[in-house]
Amino acid sequence: MKRKRVLRAIQRINGRKRSIAVDWLGLPWSLAVTAANTSDNEAGHLVVACLKGKLPRLKVIAADHGYKPGRWSGKFR
How far apart are the C-alpha atoms of 69 and 54, rounded to whole Å? Predict the structure, then answer.
């Protein structure tokens, strides 16, 4: 029984993860496609890094807790 649990824990994750930044109207501004095993936090950093310098009036980034927004404060100013 223990062996089955170990095998399930190390299974590879196949696929792609899509992260997108949109404005309040739902219009896309930035998109990142990463491997499925990439964390949401890392993918969020890629999306926001693409926006750096392109939107000088950007003040607020709203994200769910998978992106750990508390760690981003001050990084993209």
Answer: 20
